[in-house]
Amino acid sequence: MMEMEEAETIDLYELQYSDLSSPSTSSMVDSIMEALEPTVPGLLAVPIASNLRSHLLSLSRKLALLDLDTRKLVLKEHNLGSDVPLRNPDRSVSPFAMQLKYAKSQHVQQTVSECYGMEFENLGRSFKELGFCMMELGFCLARICDKAIGGNELEQSLLDSCAAKGRLIHHHSHLDALLLKQHERSRATSKRRGNNVKPLEGSESNSIASNVNSGGNHLNLWQQWHYDYGIFTVLTTPLFILPSYSETSKTEDTFSESCFGECPSPTGHTCLQIYDPNK
Question: Residues annotated as region Disordered (predicted)?
Answer without folding.
Answer: 185-209
